Amino acid sequence: MNIKIENGRVIDPANNIDGIYSVCIAEGKIQQITTSQTDFIADKTIDATGQLVVPGFIDLNASLREPGYEQKASIKSETRAAVSAGYTTLCCLPNTKPILDTPSVVQLILDKAELAGFAKVLPLGALTVALEGKTLSEMYALKKAGCIALSQAPNSNIGNQVLRRALQYASSQDILVILKPEDLSIKDDGVVHDGAISSRLGLPGIPVSAETIAIAQIIELAEETGARVHLTGVSSARAVRMIARAKFTNDKISADVHAHQLHLSELDVGTFDANYHTSPPLRTAEDRDALIAGVVKGVFSVSSGHRPHNVEAKQAPFVATESGISSLETVLPLMLKLVDEGVLTLNQMIDRLSTSPAKVLALDSGGLAIQANADICIVDPNASWLVNNDSWLSRGHNSPFFGCQMKGAISHTLVNGRLVFEK
Amino acid sequence: MSSSEQMASTSFKAPDSSSLQLNDQGKLRHFLTTDGLSKEVLTEIMDVAESFSSVSDQAVKKVPLLRGKTIVNLFFENSTRTRTTFDLAAKRLSADVINLNIATSAASKGESILDTIRNLEAMQADMFVIRHADSGAAHFIARHVAPHVSVINAGDGRHAHPTQAMLDMFTIRREKKEFSDLKVAIIGDILHSRVARSQIQALNILGAKEVRVIAPKTLLPSNMDALGAHVYGDLRSGLDDVDVIIMLRLQRERMRGALLPSEHEYFEYFGLTEKKLAYAKPDVTVMHPGPINRGIEMDAAVADGPHSVILQQVTNGIAVRMAVMALCMGHNTAGKKP
């Protein structure tokens, strides 16, 4: 189907585009981006007056729960929620059941994603067999089967010797390794930031050093092995400084922060609301502000850290609940809020959601060039909506933003030139 | 980033505990924590406890206040002393009492806490007294019970033990009358202590002059300012000019977690002896929530000495728990089912 998007403000940081253009799409690719009249014959014309036409968002860190945890979510339910939120590509974590450590599981996920027909799914294969941190997974086979990168996340259950060898082996095949920086022995039984709230509520704390020690070790090993390493889900101000410094000398290191970490802090845990039980934990207001500054400066891409849960997973005393927020659908309004506040420019926002993640993954998408894959979303920056059961598509309703009014929504999403979401 | 701070503190704020444990008139309907309560609420508990304390001295140790009410002592963690005093308190108020030791029944069969609670509600329970090993367990249950049911926290993880704190406040008030001139030192494992957290909060609410904690850093929460206590590293400086000393129980397992070198070293530096007691005011009061490890936290001479009110604490526990039960039952949705 030929699609023409008219009158929208087209923004693409990758190609330095920002202006009112018509975008013409055929055969899954962008054919023209023009201000003048064209003879392009469209089957469907979308009037994007007052809206933003931008490259579809690429998520570096999402859990889709399939296979194995279908009581929480499915590839279909979450990729559908994703395209309604502007995401055209999702990297899914390997902690499925069975673990994503064999080509057959990769194939299953790719098949299910294709069948669903919403967002593209790029599996992150397990870095070690069963994510146990003991034996290297068959990295080459996983890459060949379609893994965009390998990851130990959402765990950090790997010793330095195995990690060093995994990075050596991965780098010899130029495979990206995505790691969650967390020292498990220091984290111990912690569930919230080690600070005011842990002290007051008597919840076991996770010190900042649980993150910074892991980052220091990973930076050293990345430097020594020459591996491409991406740190996902950073939470503390000290970590921002360490990563900014490391990126300065090693361009193979990158990092992301989850969007909700830019808005929430430990104080929101309040009185044991399990929807604020996240991993990494919500830290102090100062940490949060340093993360925002890091996003502004380009130290970080922004990921969702999407963790949909069934109701039971959060229905227990705080320490016994599972961590994580169902977050795909609130990333855009939370980022637009920073734009509204004048902290971030629109251009920076789109870079952190689309352009930078594409660079990290070495994808040729993430931009709006002629002949690029037409992965596009149209943003209505002023649309106001209430987070509730009616507006929500993810099967996980575990969001602390339920009941909050959000500003900014997606009106259309195209994946490979196909309209997969229309409001 | 003032604007984003504002965002977190306004639109995305989680409800605080005071709204959960108070009814529309600001009266106590659950008792989950001392945190966030007013001086009036805490004083009312002590005043009512004072009126109940004579009941225990009568030949017939009963008042008919909660006749026809069913109180369930729901202990997910073993306890003898606390459960016994709650049991006695409920019986002296003429309530029907059921003691359930969940640690050895439903939980081990895989039943969730919510299912346990709903089953007991279906048996027309009016009040749950809860002890659980997880911080926040009482809050969690209070959020999910029917409107006519009250929840009393009998200790949740490291978080709170509000009735213990109030019986300690009651004991202090009897000894010292006023809180405003008092310097109180709490000694021992603050980090893992629900009793200490509730005591520190209660003392600050009641206007104590200074609350001190004395412990090695491995046994202290990282942010004592957030709790409202001053940190001292040794007994000599920490006990100087102190009116009340509260000792905490030291769990043996702390040695295994590399938090302490040995019991011997702990007693040497933080154990309360008659000699160290002399650093405090001459009329200092010594308290301990029990059970005592003699020779680890304190000398027998101090535990049994003239400054000790440890056994009064136990006696006062019954009156304070009667007061809390009576107040909460009177303040939940008119004490009736909807």
The overall strand count of chain B is 9
CATH-defined architecture of chain A:
Alpha-Beta Barrel
First-last Cα distance of chain A? 19 Å
Tertiary shape of chain A: globular
Question: β content of chain B, as a range?
Answer: 5-15%
Number of helices of chain B: 14
CATH superfamily of the largest domain in chain B: Aspartate/ornithine carbamoyltransferase
Radius of gyration of chain A: 21 Å
Within the CATH hierarchy, at the fold level, what is the topology of the largest domain in chain B?
A: Rossmann fold
Examine the secondary-structure arrangement and name the CATH architecture of the largest domain in chain B. Answer: 3-Layer(aba) Sandwich
Number of domains of chain B: 2
Written description of the protein model:
The complex is a heterodimer of chains A (423) and B (338). Chain A is α/β, with parallel strands linked by helices. Chain A has helices at 75-84, 103-116, 139-145, 160-172, 184-187, 196-201, 209-225, 237-249, 285-297, 331-340, 346-361; strands at residues 3-12, 17-26, 29-34, 44-47, 52-55, 57-62, 87-92, 120-126, 149-151, 177-179, 192-193, 205-206, 229-231, 253-258, 301-303, 376-386, 405-415, 418-422. The mean pLDDT of chain A is 97. Chain B has 338 residues and is α/β, with parallel strands linked by helices. Mean pLDDT of chain B is 89; it is low at 1-15 and 334-338. Chain B starts with a helix and ends in a 7-residue tail after the last helix. In chain B, 38% of the residues lie in helices and 13% in strands. The radius of gyration of chain B is 20 Å and the shape is globular. The interface between A and B is large, with 44 and 40 residues.
